[in-house]
Write a structure and sequence with these properties.
The complex is a heterodimer of chains A (631) and B (276). Chain A has 16 helices and 25 strands. Chain A is an alpha+beta fold and 631 residues long. In chain A, helix 1 (2-15) packs across helix 7, helix 3 (66-73) packs parallel to helix 9 (171-182) and helix 6 runs antiparallel to helix 7 (135-151). By secondary structure, chain B is an alpha+beta fold. In chain B, strands 2-1-4-3 form a four-stranded antiparallel beta sheet. In chain B, strand 3 (210-215) and strand 4 form a beta hairpin. Chain B starts with a helix and ends in a 12-residue tail after the last helix. Classes of the chains: A alpha+beta (631), B alpha+beta (276). Chains A and B meet through helix 1, helix 2, helix 5, helix 6 and helix 7 of A and helix 1, helix 2, helix 3, helix 4 and helix 5 of B.
Chain lengths: 631, 276
Amino acid sequence: MRYLSTAAVAFVLLTGCDVDVDIDIDTEAEPEVVGTAYPEQVFWGDTHLHTDNSVDAFGFGNRLDAEAALRFARGEQVTATKGEQAQLSRPLDFLVISDHSDAIGATKAIYEAPRVALLANEFLLRWHDMMHESEAGSLQVTAELIDGAAMGTLPESLTDEEEQTERTADLWQRHGEILEQYNEPGVFTAFMGYEYTPMPQGDNLHRVVMFRDGPEKATTVLPFSSLGPNGDPERLWQHMESYEQNTGGRMLAIPHNSNVSNGLMFAMERMDGSPIDLAYAQTRALREPIVEVTQIKGDSESHPFLSPNDEFASYGIAGWDSCNLSCTREMDDDSYAGSYAREALKRGLEIERTVGVNPYKFGMIGSTDSHTSLATADENNFFGKHTANEANVSGRATTPQNLGSREGRFGWHYLSSGYAAVWATSNTREAIFDAMVRREVYATTGPRMTVRFFGGFGLTEADTENLVESGYGKGVPMGGELAGGDGEVPAFLISASMDPESARLDRIQVVKGWIDEDGETFETIYNVSWSDAEQRVMDDDGKVTPIANTVDLSTGTWNKDSGAPELMTWWQDPDFNAAQTAFYYVRVLEVPTPTWPVYDALKFGFTLPDDVIKVQQERAYTSPIWYSPQS
Amino acid sequence: MSKSAAMLKEPLLHFLVGALLIFVWTYIAGDSQSPDRIVFTEADVARLKANWRQNFYREPTKAELDGLIDAAIVEEIYYREALKLGLDQGDPVVRRRLVTKLQFLNEQSPGEFVPTDEVLEDWLGAHPEKYRIAAEYDLMQLYLGEEEAVDLVEIEQLVVGLNAGSVQPDQIDNTLRMLPTGVKGNPDTLRDQFGSMFTDSLEELVTGQWVGPIRSGFGIHVVKLQEKRSGRQPFLSEVRQRVLNDWRVEQLDRAETETLAGYLSNYEIRVFGREQ
């Protein structure tokens, strides 16, 4: 009888080699998080962070895993890969770890190497090793095995059939378990997600994909790879639809780096060259409600070539606007329009005119795209894009850093940017995701300004006394839509408060884009509120006296008296034409402050070359509010 | 004869051990495909289909399946050609990937990372400050203006007046309209709203008294502490997941150090320029 059980055990040993992975989740019930009636608090997060699970991140030496990334985002001190102590000045409220899908999907093979399969079970491992070492060893272990079976002292995992149930413990699954350990509704939200990275001929078509759901649903599918035929985003959207239909869950995709897409990200036709049709427009608008417009690899909101009248359009373009992501294809004049968000919003109006639906009706956020596992976007606490450029690397601002080659881009071209601001009713997966779907979000280049933006018919100047209640009660928030109005001119309520840990504000602008009867699109920028309004005047062209640059490069400080801690206004479009579909979004500018290379130069004691940008105005971009004539 | 010795003579045992050895040998040796011959077996195609099915909840069409197989063939060819050229040798990405893979697998050892409540209570007791539940403040704040715009003498008078009742809070023009007058929170949430300069001053507040000037990143405030609920040590049940996470991270660190020490003991290491 003993020998039969030995045979059974041996059989089980050989066939039931599954890895036993712990779920260290506290199963005590957590208090329900109650949402507020309308969003009262803005939540700050990074939707685009890479850990050592990403091929390129660990290729550069990143040794920090998802757990370290989560702890850092929650405000803990972490030792960066290159040894420096790293800590955010304030925690983030949410995080999407978005490692490249090609590395973390379908990695069941990680457990298929035989010795590896035994690794997790120490008894099996020891047995395996001894079997290989010597005959005496193998006989000894076999004897132990037999003894154990006889005495009933074998480890449970060998005899309990249920413990051996099929658990395809791959990286994606393990990732979900780690997220659950750090997801704390009401305190910190950890989202399931990954990055889908099609890059035809080096043109960037990347999207971050994120789930409303926790790992239980999200791990029923594999991170969607962009290889082969799946490199067309329309495939991704098909997959997203299948997931939603079959699980009842929700996904969304967030494009980024249109600035290096060579005009492809917001093209006027589909990837295969055919014209955009109604189905495409509907699908795109549904699957991609927001766009990441500012991050380490440059700012994609606007460009002087497309907006020659915008004196602030040149932020974040140096190093990024002459070629695509891999710098294998140069940008020609025709490529700019499909590469920048403001123009894309206008293109959306054009396509809506011909096809009936606007595919580019998106909200705007920022994120870092950091590959160091450290979600930093503060100029004086910037840990760079790759571990080769962390904060203790003295030469990082001036070394050439193109991807793949060593030409074209230099360290200082990389921005210490940005974060996603979300107006949600609670800090939970559901509430933050839903806010993104309705586009009640805005982008910043790092500083945590609080920005409110409402539009409606019937909003009056007196409503600034009760801005938030009036805005929600009588109008729509950022990301919303106004329609009809019977010719009445809509009004907007806008407020911006400085980040108390950053700099004061220079001004608030409203960016308007519209389409006329001939199908041509236009844009105008209005200055609607600015600091020191008594001294600074608006001229006939609508331009306001630029705020003085008070940055002292020798100390990295600026005059704290410059600018305003808060700006607020009620505004109507002086050129409103009720027949013309339009969008309006808010851009908020801080006073000029030093860029991160300046802090580096002071810290390490060197002089920056003349061509390095040393002063910038950090900014926020809200999601637009769209107006259309018909209800 | 000892029991063991008798057992060792059992033919069944010899047969079993032999069978196990053969099984393990073939398992480890893996499929041996002859060079320059690429075979996609039914199992391989099934795997491609399964991945597709998992993401699209339907079978791939013939065209889609052909696309997947063609892509897989190309990948296999490039993979083999790369191996022939020895491109895996010394490749920093391959090296890093293998290191990460092993580190990941080493973390999978179960057993020692499931602590009892007693272990967690000990941990909680050993790190009192880390999990301390912070004090809760119920404040009234009035923003008086930017640092350069206010008169500190006037502020002192204002504070006196507020405390005497001769000046009412709603008589003050609060020029930062988006900052609420009534504020509740702990030092972390207050810092998010007002900045660290403000929270540094929380200790000087006295219940029921207006105090000023209190500085924040916005400018100058006067603040009245309505109520303060002191901080306290938590019960394990209130912070269990965080304690569990932190304890586990330390165990993993220790395990990784031990694992590395174990590996190191198997290697003789010599470095140019370093003493042995």
